């Protein structure tokens, strides 16, 4: 049957775009639907990302039936920061159909060439601050909240079109009670406290003020990372509000040196353990009632953890993990995932190994030069 590539231009097509993975992966036990309302907001012009970015999406159809989807993104902030004109592909989902994947990636590449781009990277959905990466190992495990999942057939189909891994991303499984952390945390906390370095939880009563104070740290901490993409203040604040819905103040840790913010860590309850039962990712009519269960799922994801360069190698990363572990135990958390950790982040990987953590899932961001 002839393959057709259709640009997404209206609400009906966007609905089909959002719904497609639910049908393609309905028989995959590890698949967890993303919240529909969140995806609708992401693609709406209410998303502050569109102040500096462009997006185009396509559907692949055979005989009128959707068999694949993809989006193209151009992030002008990334172009300015990296000094390279690169485009991204994201939201790539497809049946085990080599022709469809080739045509979808071809649409992205054509759009990128028309915009004068030198390469295409992906999957990156809007930016590396959002969901990104293609799962390459661990297909039998469900994704943690805000993490991607794809079937095993997709990476070979992407690689067959000239894409090669540019960066490996790992998810680390952290034991429920890492003994090395328990042994080191108390003396480390005492030693740092003597220097005036302390930890505290974010104050939700002053949430906007707290977030505004953390925003300048974001680029100081993560700006040298591979694939770093700047966030506008509006984006940073919007993401903070989103994360607040699946976290508690005690899981947002701020490190300070005599009152000056020098690092932070954020962990979330793994809301995917609740979302897994949401048919097609819909909250209505009754799924919203299940949201109250999120803080009882017994699992967390450590999303962000970083310290400004001057204060690195003092053990603050381990101490923040210890604080999160203590909070988790008090809330009945039995397992945790740290993700993403880049393949070239040796200090973080070493810290996780010392805690007895191990890699449970592997992802890759691919690149193809144009």
Describe it.
Strands 1, 2, 3, 4, 5, 6, 7, 8, 9, 10, 11, 12 and 13 form a 13-stranded mixed sheet that branches. The protein has 2 domains: 3-168, 3-Layer(aba) Sandwich (Aminopeptidase), CATH 3.40.630; 173-363, 3-Layer(aba) Sandwich (Aminopeptidase), CATH 3.40.630.30. The model has no long low-confidence stretch (mean pLDDT 92). It has 11 helices and 13 strands. The chain starts with a strand and ends with a strand. With 370 residues, it is an alpha+beta fold. The relative contact order is 0.16.
Key features of this structure:
alpha+beta, Aminopeptidase, 2 domains, 13-stranded mixed β-sheet, 11 helices, 13 strands, globular
Count of individual helical segments = 11
Q: What class would the helix/strand composition place it in?
A: alpha+beta
User: How many domains would you count in the coordinates?
Assistant: 2
Query: Class of the largest domain, according to the CATH hierarchy?
Result: Alpha Beta
What's the overall average pLDDT, rounded?
92
Distance between the termini: 30 Å
In the predicted model, the low-confidence regions spanning at least 5 consecutive residues are none
Could you name the CATH homologous superfamily of the largest domain? Gcn5-related N-acetyltransferase (GNAT)
Helix content: 25-40%
Number of strand segments: 13
As a percent range, the share of strand residues is 25-35%
CATH topology category name of the largest domain: Aminopeptidase
Shape category:
globular
Helix-strand pattern: EHHEEHEHEEHEHEHHEEHEHEHE
Under the CATH scheme, the architecture of the largest domain is 3-Layer(aba) Sandwich
